[in-house]
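agent> fetching stored inputs for the heme C docking request
agent> found them:
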Amino acid sequence: MAVEERDPLSGYKTTGHEWNGIKELNTPVPRPVFVFLIAAFLFSVGYWLLMPAWPTGQSYTKGLLGFDQRDQVARDVAAAAAQRAAWSRALEYTPFDVALADPALMTRVRDTAPALFGDNCAMCHGQSGEGGPGFPNLRDGAWLWGGTPDEIAETMRVGVNADHADTRVSQMPAFGRDQMLPQEDVRAVIDYVRSLSSERPVAPSARLVRGAEVFANTCAACHGVTGEGSQAVGAPNLTDGAWLYGGDRDSVHQSVWGGRHGQMPAWEGRLSTAERRLLTLYLLDLGRDQP
Ligand code: HEC
Ligand code: HEC
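agent> prediction call returned; pasting tokens
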């Protein structure tokens, strides 16, 4: 039996052992596998010694480095809280105009505010403040209660027709339902109101003249002599074509017939001062993007 025999099929040498005509090939486990196993073993021994590893009933082996992920998390949380405290203090005390001109602060506003807005405001005002029927658009610059930073923050603080002691009160009477105006006058004033924002010239008619009279006597006190609205009482501008409840005949009829009494929750007590100021800056920033 030749010791240096080579298997003609696989090309391996044989070990020289033979059982019933079957010869064993000499294919040892490759050396790198042993090297790797030894390295892994050494690594694990080192790791057990240095790091927390084995449970010992009540406790565990702490490792020579004294590393503890719980400490690390606590340190990270404390660092994040300190950072947040500094930033919400900055929000509370930085005047709005200074904040709006501070790119670093506004970058953080843009990063942080959308989630807060999404959680608290989007169900009424839309995901990006675009509003919808009965819920004002907060980015078009047409403000019911005033668009200065302080006015916006105040609306948010006290709400509208809300349960806050200082709430803003939106109280348009129900001219039709409460029979404050005869049917014909309601119809006439609706035509007149719709003509204020009509894009096409409206043919003059006796009804429009009557509508203008009714408007001057009954509506101008809140909506202004020319229908330009009043932010003191939250009365919308009726001339700008931006409708809160809709400008079609049915919607305007419903507004004048029954009043609307829109309700916006007060956010004092629900959101912190810093959060309300954050949202105010966010809304002002959204408005800046508008053409
Ligand atoms: C339950 C629905 C609702 C939610 C939630 C809500 N709002 Fe309002 N909001 C309204 C309504 C309705 C009005 C209009 C009230 C009126 O008729 O004057 C309004 C008005 C406003 C105004 C005044 C708009 C103007 O033109 O003057 C601001 C600012 C505002 N909301 C901001 C917010 C912010 C910020 C949040 C989240 C913290 C929020 N709202 C959450 C319903 C809501
Ligand atoms: C006491 C003040 C007051 C008077 C008087 C008043 N309004 Fe209003 N009006 C409001 C307020 C406030 C709103 C906003 C309603 C809301 O959001 O609840 C409003 C809303 C409206 C709207 C809805 C506008 C939109 O954008 O959808 C119309 C239309 C309207 N008024 C027409 C009239 C007409 C016509 C009269 C006179 C017959 C009149 N109002 C008298 C305060 C008044």
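agent> quick read of the result: The chain has ten helices and four strands.
agent> awaiting further instructions
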